[in-house]
Specification:
By secondary structure, this protein is an alpha+beta fold. The strands form three sheets. Strands 1-6-3-2 form a four-stranded antiparallel β-sheet. A two-stranded antiparallel sheet has the order 4-5. Strand 7 and strand 8 form a beta hairpin. The radius of gyration is 26 Å and the shape is elongated. 34% of the residues are buried. The N terminus is likely disordered.
Length: 376
């Protein structure tokens, strides 16, 4: 919990650049608030009206020694289900071919002989979790790329949801004010996306090495040797990105870690990141979640220092960056257009050296930015 006003907000230039909403209705709600509302709403729907059990395949397992000819003529025997517990089960995969691809016939019965060559696994999960969670198998092997985004709005339980939303509630507004509405949305979703990418990379590498070098793969640090269909859910990757951004924007703000220990925001955030890296290194409990945390944090660390990349991300989706500041501003400063990097330089200068370090022309330009972004 933030103990006193953020240092950034103490500066006069911050209040001058603050962009109060002038549009009626829903546009008055910040993007950060919308993210929290959507996460809470999805969770409530997931445990109530959308709690319907849903069967989802979790990959196939091929028996050792099965040839390509046999696998090409496989079929799944759905008439009999075998259960392994915890809502997971499998169906046998059969074939009527030998290793050379020739039909195998039961001479006595006069019909094809069926040979088990593997199994198709499945799990029973609530419908939202089944269709939205992230896993290496679903997102990579089966090409269900929407899961890079949907997993960010799903949570395992109320505590999981509450911890993530508290993080957004306390520092998300700072980052949104610094970036602007659209860039903040792009920032948050990109950090979550990169959390999924980090998880996928480490899980895919760990799984492949475990198949090639089963005796040594489990001893290598950082690798995730879990089943590639292990589900990943949670907003933590995006939240870690927001935390890293807040630590950059307002490093000296005092926060109460666990509501007890006062600490500078930058110190607290990097301590949390260090714990995640350490747990991932040793393969501890929730190492997969910490892989996503680290991926989101790295993305946040980079993007808050290269915010023009967010404009590029928005352009991919045909969206204009409404907070772009690289156009000409008649009557402010001089005829040269100020780039976004220049604006960030001035804000950093004011934050580190005080508003009095800015020249009168620089202060006028900052006021002009506020008026341009908030006409009327």
């Amino acid at each position: 919990m933030i103990q006193r006003p953020i240092e950034l907000g103490d500066r006069q230039y911050a209040s001058e650049l603050r962009r109060p909403s002038v549009l009626p209705g829903l546009s008055m709600i910040s993007i950060n608030t919308w993210i929290i509302v959507i996460n809470v709403l999805v969770f409530v729907l997931g445990i109530t009206v959308l709690n319907t059990p849903y069967r989802i395949t979790t990959g196939t397992e091929r028996a050792r020694g099965v040839t390509e000819d046999q696998w090409a003529h496989k079929w799944v025997y759905h008439d009999q289900t075998q259960w392994t517990g915890s809502g997971e089960g499998y169906h046998l995969i059969l074939t009527d071919r030998d290793a050379d691809g020739r039909p195998v016939v039961n001479l006595e019965a006069g019909r094809p002989m069926l040979i088990p060559i593997g199994r198709e696994r499945f799990a029973i999960r609530p419908v939202l979790d089944a269709l939205g969670h992230f896993s290496t198998g679903k997102a990579f092997s089966e090409g269900q790329v929407w899961r890079f985004f949907t997993f960010q709005f799903l949570h395992a339980n109320a505590l999981h949801l509450g911890m993530n939303m508290l993080g957004l509630w306390f520092v998300g507004g700072i980052v949104e004010e610094y970036l602007g509405r659209r860039r903040y949305a792009a920032f948050y979703l990109t950090c979550g996306f990169m959390g999924g990418v980090m998880y996928l990379f480490l899980n895919l590498a760990g799984y492949m090495l475990s198949q090639w070098f089963p005796s040594t793969a489990h001893t290598l640090p950082f690798l995730l040797v879990d089943d590639p269909y292990t589900p990943l859910v949670g907003a933590s990757a995006g939240v870690f990105g927001v935390l890293l951004a807040a630590a950059y924007i307002a490093p000296n703000a005092i926060v109460d870690v666990l509501f007890v220990l006062p600490m500078k925001l930058r110190t607290a955030v990097y301590l949390f990141l260090l714990i995640a890296v350490a747990n991932l290194f040793r393969g501890g409990t929730n190492a997969g979640g910490d892989a996503a945390h680290v991926g989101g944090a790295l993305a946040g660390f980079y993007l808050v220092r290269h915010t023009h990349k967010l404009r590029d991300i928005l352009s991919v989706f045909g969206l204009r960056d409404q907070s772009s500041r690289d156009r000409r501003h008649p009557g402010v400063f001089d005829s040269d257009a100020r780039s976004e990097a220049e604006l960030e330089r001035l804000i950093r200068k004011a934050r580190e050296q005080g508003l009095e370090s800015l020249t009168p022309g620089e202060q006028r330009w900052l006021r002009g930015e506020r008026e341009r972004l908030n006409p009327g």
